[in-house]
Amino acid sequence: MYYDPIKKSLGKVFNRSPYLRILFYHLLDLLLLRTYHIKRELRKWKQTAPRQAHILDAGSGFGQYSYFMSKFSDKYCILGVDVKADQVGECNEFFQAIGRQNVVFRVEDITKFRKENCFDLILCVDVMEHIEDDVEVLRNYQASLKSGGVLLISTPSDQGGSDVTEEGETSFIEEHVRDGYGIQEIKDKIRQAGFNKVKVHFSYGVPGRISWRLSMKYPMKMLNISQIFFIVLPFYYLLVMPISLILNFIDSRTAHSSGTGLIVLAWK
């Protein structure tokens, strides 16, 4: 199953105007359970954040999290970095079009990117599972944070986070270099990178896994068969969205003893 081409197709459709892109962000907010967890942590961070916070969105993708954080304050300085030049260019065009001058995107490789003692917050959503030398990236993050700065990561767990449940099975997201992290594994790597404190909890418990299949996996399977299913999707989502929204809300408000996702917080 090929996930990246579907993302590119969706990006092209919704990049035709700033209004469509904002609609796209809102749809991602509804569909992606990780967004519920990440936004909840970001709101908590905001309560004690510096008035003129400097933020790094590492692996910024479509820029939806930078957009969300830019609404906190126009005093925040947000830098989004990604290796995909087309997405970086589209993000810069969009944020300039809506007048968010405090948000800038650059093409950067996070395995090499480091700005000493620069950021109050580094956000890294669904990136670490793509990085072979993950400890080096974590060291870059640690060096780039100010003292007391926070690293917030969302990543798959080793309990089926890449939709892999058996040895030899391929990932739903084929570009992953690892199927997921164990809690102790990622804690050890973060401490190895020099962080003082780390907390990790599961996301995508039972409610989240059901929601993900309904709202993401099955539609992606349909679109990989044929893009004609774009016509069917609105009717499909009319049926499943109420169920998925309830499941996402439950998942993001519940502590899980296991799950296919991890939310990681680390402090310098």
Structural class assignment: alpha/beta
Order of helices and strands: HHHEHEHEEHEHEHHE
* Major sheet size, sense and barrel closure: 7 strands, mixed
Radius of gyration: 18 Å
Indicate the overall shape. Answer: globular
* Tally of helical segments: 9
Helix content: 40-55%
Number of beta strands: 7
**Biggest sheet, spatial arrangement of strands:** 3-2-1-4-5-7-6
Which stretches are poorly predicted, pLDDT < 50 over at least 5 residues? Answer: 164-171
CATH topology: Rossmann fold
What's the CATH C level?
Alpha Beta
Explain the overall architecture:
- This protein is an alpha/beta fold and 268 residues long.
- The chain has a single domain, classed as Rossmann fold.
- The chain is built from 9 helices and 7 strands, in the order αααβαβαββαβαβααβ.
- The protein has helices at residues 4-14, 18-31, 33-46, 64-70, 85-97, 134-144, 183-192, 206-225, 229-252, and strands spanning 54-58, 77-82, 103-107, 119-125, 145-156, 197-203, 261-267.
- The chain has a 7-stranded mixed sheet, with helices on both faces.
- α8 (206-225) runs antiparallel to α9 (229-252).
- The radius of gyration is 18 Å and the shape is globular.
- The protein starts with a helix and ends with a strand.
- The relative contact order is 0.15.
